[in-house]
Write a structure and sequence with these properties.
Helix content is 72%, strand content 0%. It is rod-shaped, with a radius of gyration of 16 Å. By secondary structure, it is an all-alpha fold. It has one domain.
Length: 69
């Protein structure tokens, strides 16, 4: 990472790649655990990003203007 937060789309892509690794037949237990841990962290990031977007949308709907919370 270059110091800036990855976009939601980038995190979803990484999550899809992680799921694909977990679905491999010859994945070792250690690699599966590491991929699962990475996937859970990515899922948390995605949820936080979605929450921020929802709050922005609610704020727009409330007063018609754009204001970040």
């Amino acid at each position: 990472m270059t110091g800036t937060e990855e976009t939601l789309e980038e995190n979803f892509k990484r999550l899809e790649e992680t799921i694909a690794r977990l679905e491999e037949e010859d994945i070792s237990l250690e690699d599966a655990f590491n991929a699962y841990s990475e996937g859970m962290q990515l899922l948390k990031k995605c949820n936080a990003q979605i929450d921020r977007v929802e709050k922005k949308v609610l704020k727009i709907a409330e007063d018609g203007g754009l204001e970040e919370l």
